[in-house]
């Protein structure tokens, strides 16, 4: 059997991440891991989280790392020559200050470039993986970057999603992970005292998760 493991928002929580990687390795000898973004901000050690994820997996594992809105904010903060975006990122309480503190100053240029290069979506045979969400009113290939990074679903909302199951984070809740129809939210509020969650999918079976792995913060 082949599995895909989708990990929710990490937000600088390196210890839960390391324990989750160990739990996944114990679950199966190989597979694909999809990170749905938001590696940085708010938590204690964004630098260590990016160091670990950029280092990548051991063979024969495959990791796919999507961009979250917090990576987008971080990249924009350093790209803004007038420093307005950086001031907002650091001073608005969204976590930029904690990120910079984890670096002892400025974010490493190679980490900024890695974050900027992240894809916004991963689609396989049966699933769509994004950070925040999609708008079913538009074709999948015409989704806006804003929706993929920032959209939030009303409670209980689901759709057909072009015949696939949608997997996302971005909207935290201590009651997550939750599957609602054809949609699974895996942001369990790790940085807010919740847990880091991972949805497990059988690559040969359509639909939602067959299991969850959860690591307490």
From TrEMBL:
<dbReference type="Pfam" id="PF00149">
    <property type="entry name" value="Metallophos"/>
</dbReference>
<dbReference type="InterPro" id="IPR050126">
    <property type="entry name" value="Ap4A_hydrolase"/>
</dbReference>
<protein>
    <submittedName>
        <fullName>Serine/threonine protein phosphatase</fullName>
    </submittedName>
</protein>
<feature type="domain" description="Calcineurin-like phosphoesterase">
    <location>
        <begin position="6"/>
        <end position="181"/>
    </location>
</feature>
<dbReference type="InterPro" id="IPR004843">
    <property type="entry name" value="Calcineurin-like_PHP"/>
</dbReference>
<dbReference type="InterPro" id="IPR029052">
    <property type="entry name" value="Metallo-depent_PP-like"/>
</dbReference>
């Amino acid at each position: 059997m082949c599995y895909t493991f989708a990990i929710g928002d990490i937000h600088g929580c390196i210890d839960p991440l390391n324990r989750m990687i160990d739990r996944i390795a114990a679950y199966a000898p190989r597979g694909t891991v999809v990170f749905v973004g938001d590696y940085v901000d708010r938590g204690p050690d964004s630098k260590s989280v990016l160091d670990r994820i950029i280092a990548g997996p051991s063979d024969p594992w495959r990791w796919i790392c999507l961009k979250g809105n917090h990576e987008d904010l971080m990249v924009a903060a350093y790209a803004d020559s007038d420093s307005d975006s950086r001031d907002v990122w650091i001073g608005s309480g969204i976590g930029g200050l904690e990120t910079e503190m984890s670096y002892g100053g400025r974010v490493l240029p190679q980490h900024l470039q890695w974050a900027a290069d992240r894809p916004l979506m991963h689609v396989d045979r049966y699933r769509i993986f994004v950070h925040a969400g999609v708008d079913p009113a538009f074709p999948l290939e015409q989704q806006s970057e804003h929706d993929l990074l920032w959209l939030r679903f009303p409670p209980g909302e689901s759709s057909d999603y072009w015949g696939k199951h949608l997997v996302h984070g971005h909207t935290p809740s201590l009651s997550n992970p939750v599957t609602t129809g054809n949609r699974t939210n895996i942001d369990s509020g790790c940085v807010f005292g919740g847990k880091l969650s991972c949805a497990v999918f059988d690559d040969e079976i359509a639909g939602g998760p067959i299991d969850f792995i959860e690591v307490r913060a």
